[in-house]
């Protein structure tokens, strides 16, 4: 993602100087490209980032009928509880509607062109899976340890009409604001990514940069970051502000790492995982921790929330890497082998290099020569790269589940239902086909 000077200035002025990120996964994930076992690698990452709190393995995978994260469809593979299936998205669907309504108001502007561009992916039908707000609202409820009922949530179903700069008194409203902030940051990063990648489509629509041009698409992303910053400042919580500010820094750092990596770094799994954390997992990890802090939970519980988000994000991305090789274009809604065509070596390729050293040269020249993409595809298919990446994704799924299982015991049936839903999301992250 790219940030213009405008966005950088707004973030500095609104949030203050961002302290140098003490990125907890920068060291110790992999000592070399050769990985003895996916589980060992995943556990080392947890020790390096959060003090090895997610002991034990989570529930194993179960067969699933759904192709991906469906916000509404209930499949035969959904977790069954109290005689009925649990769909993680439907549990908090009422709150997601309220958050969506608020965001559609938040991204408007009195400048028509800017308003049209910034609203593009917040219109009804264009919101995507709403994965991040779903995870964050489920996490907010899952952290509850006392007795509570779903009925107590009645007032939260209505949209919050307070101005963005006003701090809400209610804890749940503050957590909803955090979900709104995370989604605005996510969409801003998509707008910037699409410009950098010359993307043609996004969420089944023409990419915004094709609709309004690169300049206005970049400014629309900047505008979303500015609005997110104002809302973030309204929470009046310096630790939460720091966490989300760090996410902005990570998004930029990850994109620059991808663009400017030296040849020797392109084939480094450690470099790839660090970049993946920055670009994909940092937002959901730090937002999950922020949700816990806003709820008044202690550092240990907040770190478990972070562990869940981090491992969910990494599992999701590793499965994306796999689907780029074995997925169906008609199901994915985008061409396969996209990363290779963009010169990016993902986990299946990096594992395959160990079996087929000739891939190293292709990786280091970013698959630029004629026939490089096809040859790399053939070698990955022959190798164990896809299987090892799937194993790595499952390890992060298990670590995400273990983080939820490690939360303090709750007497709330609704909190426990939300915990099961979070674990179901972790399972779906590696079992999806789109």
From TrEMBL:
The keyword Transferase applies. One of its GO terms (molecular function) is metal ion binding. One of its GO terms (cellular component) is transferase complex. Its cofactor is Mg(2+). Coiled coil: none annotated. Keywords: Isoprene biosynthesis, Magnesium, Metal-binding, Transferase. InterPro entries: Isoprenoid_synthase_dom_sf, Polyprenyl_synt, Polyprenyl_synt_CS. The keyword Membrane does not apply. GO terms for biological process: isoprenoid biosynthetic process; ubiquinone biosynthetic process. Pfam families: polyprenyl_synt. Belongs to the FPP/GGPP synthase family. This is Polyprenyl synthetase.
């Amino acid at each position: 993602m790219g940030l213009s000077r405008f966005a950088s200035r707004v973030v500095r002025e609104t949030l203050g100087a961002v302290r140098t990120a003490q990125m907890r996964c920068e060291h110790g994930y992999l000592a070399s490209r050769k990985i003895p076992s996916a589980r060992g690698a995943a556990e080392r990452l947890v020790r390096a980032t959060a003090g090895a709190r997610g002991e034990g393995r989570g529930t194993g995978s179960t067969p699933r009928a759904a192709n991906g994260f469906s916000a509404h469809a209930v499949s035969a593979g959904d977790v069954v509880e109290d005689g009925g299936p649990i769909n993680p998205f439907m549990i908090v669907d009422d709150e997601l509607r309220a958050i969506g309504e608020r965001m559609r108001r938040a991204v408007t502007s009195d400048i028509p062109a800017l308003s049209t561009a910034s609203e593009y992916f917040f219109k009804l039908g264009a919101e995507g899976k709403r994965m991040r707000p779903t995870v964050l609202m489920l996490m907010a409820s899952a952290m509850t340890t006392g007795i509570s009922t779903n009925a107590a949530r009645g007032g939260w179903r209505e949209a919050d009409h307070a101005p963005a700069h006003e701090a809400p008194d209610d804890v749940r409203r503050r957590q909803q604001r955090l979900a709104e902030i995370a989604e605005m940051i996510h969409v801003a990063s998509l707008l910037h990514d699409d410009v950098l990648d010359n993307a043609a489509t996004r969420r089944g629509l023409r990419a915004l940069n094709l609709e309004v041009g690169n300049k206005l698409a970049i400014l629309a992303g900047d505008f979303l970051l500015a609005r997110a910053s104002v809302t973030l400042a309204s929470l009046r919580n310096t630790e939460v502000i720091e966490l989300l500010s760090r996410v902005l820094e990570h998004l930029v750092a990850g994109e620059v790492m991808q663009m400017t990596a030296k040849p020797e770094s392109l084939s480094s799994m450690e470099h790839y995982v660090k970049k993946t954390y920055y670009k994909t997992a940092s937002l959901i990890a730090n937002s999950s921790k922020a949700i816990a802090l806003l709820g008044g939970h202690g550092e240990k519980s907040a770190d478990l929330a972070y562990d869940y988000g981090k491992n969910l994000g990494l599992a999701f991305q590793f499965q994306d890497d796999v689907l780029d090789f074995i997925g169906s274009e008609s199901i994915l809604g985008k061409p396969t082998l996209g990363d290779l065509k963009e010169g990016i070596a993902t986990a299946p390729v990096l594992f395959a290099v160990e079996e087929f050293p000739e891939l190293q040269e292709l990786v280091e020249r970013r698959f630029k020569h004629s026939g490089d993409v096809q040859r790399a595809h053939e070698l990955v298919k022959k190798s164990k790269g896809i299987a090892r990446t799937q194993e790595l994704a499952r390890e992060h799924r298990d670590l995400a589940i273990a983080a939820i299982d490690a939360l303090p015991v709750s007497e709330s049936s609704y909190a426990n239902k939300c915990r099961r839903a979070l674990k179901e999301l972790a399972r779906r992250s590696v079992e999806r086909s789109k």
